[in-house]
Design a protein that fits this description.
Length: 346
């Protein structure tokens, strides 16, 4: 099922496209040897008629298992797979950047290497791209129902801050599963920042987009490496990269505290001069100092997050470092009969 991106017209202004001359599929992978052994043959089989040429780009993000060996074995079997090995684990955002930098396709699909993204949805993305859309992204259905109430509240606050503090519309429950036109990929490559929050960057570059609802498959092997700490870290990166509302809230908080302090001071003076009440002693003073110290530390923490982003940017370190890179597939078409996937994922 498809639905239109709220900032895009109901129909694309671009003319319909022919099937891509080269279709690139970027798959960031961290310890996904077992899943890739099943997924890559299934992708090769599904996409063989969708483009004149296909390349499956696996970005090994410093895996500690046999991910690289499993991919190399599939390359030797004749699958149109390229392997990019990063020198260590740089994180999924950096692995995505590495894959997009290496992708040469007219259309580029980003999928997870765990096999949870449906191939049938990816095929629908190609169909929508051929209609003229530049970006087609997947929206996971039923995701909010599976989250706790506290997590839903924090997620809602995060998107509220993004939407009201920036000029981009970042749709909830839309992750990295998407198809990008070549023009979009080139626009993303031109962005200079190093602290990457790709979900926000996808929305920032704009272009005509369409959303597709999908239900993720069950993960067959292994477990997700993303926990609460990683999600909170991504949220901080996204907030500091796309909105200045936290800094403005610091200013508002300082103004409110100053006004309250002024009102309290006037009340103490009036209480002493008019009513003859003694000035409160140690308890009031200690509570006031503790409260103000907490406010100051909170404000410094928010400012420190933005300062940390500046510190990362001015060092000009690369986003990732490549250890090995399989050369591009020169005039190599998909084999007529790629190895069958052990399980049908479409």
């Amino acid at each position: 099922m498809t639905r239109e991106h709220c900032t895009s017209p109901a129909s694309p202004t671009q003319p319909p496209r022919e099937r891509p001359g080269l279709l690139s599929v970027v798959l960031p992978a961290f310890n996904e040897a077992l899943n890739l052994t099943e997924l890559l043959p299934a992708l090769a089989l599904a996409f063989k008629d969708q483009a004149r040429q296909v390349e499956l780009l696996v970005v090994d993000d410093g895996s500690s298992d046999d991910t690289a060996l499993a991919v190399q074995a599939l390359i030797h079997q004749g699958l149109p797979v390229r392997l990019l090995r990063l020198s260590r684990n740089f994180g999924k955002e950096a692995a995505l950047c590495a894959g997009l930098d290496a992708a040469d396709g007219d259309a580029v699909i980003i999928m997870d290497a765990d096999g949870q993204h449906p191939i049938a949805t990816a095929l629908q993305m190609i169909s929508d791209w051929r209609q003229g859309f530049d970006v087609v992204y997947g929206v996971q259905t039923g995701r909010s129902e599976s989250q706790t109430l506290l997590r839903r509240r924090f997620t809602g606050l995060f998107y509220w801050l993004i939407h009201h503090g920036s000029r981009i519309n970042m749709p909830p429950n839309a992750g990295d599963f998407r198809l990008l036109d070549r023009r979009v990929v080139l626009a993303l490559r031109a962005l200079p920042e190093r602290a990457r929050y790709m979900k926000g960057l996808f929305a920032w570059v704009g272009f005509q987009a369409r959303a597709i609802d999908y239900v993720p498959h069950r993960r067959e092997h292994g477990a997700s490496s993303y926990g609460l700490a990683q999600l909170l870290s991504f949220a901080l990166v996204g907030l500091t990269a796309f909105t200045k509302i936290p800094l403005r809230l610091v200013s508002v908080l300082g103004l409110v505290v100053s006004l309250l302090s002024l009102v309290f001071g006037l009340w103490v003076v009036l209480e002493k001069t008019l009513l003859g009440q003694p000035v409160s002693g140690f308890t009031t003073l200690a509570a006031s100092i503790t409260f103000l110290a907490g406010v100051q530390l909170l404000c410094l923490g928010i400012i420190a997050e933005y300062l940390g982003r500046v510190f990362d940017e001015v060092k000009h370190r690369p986003i990732y470092v490549l250890q090995d890179l399989t050369p591009p597939l020169q005039n190599q078409l998909l084999p007529t009969d790629p190895p069958e996937a052990s399980k049908e994922r479409a």
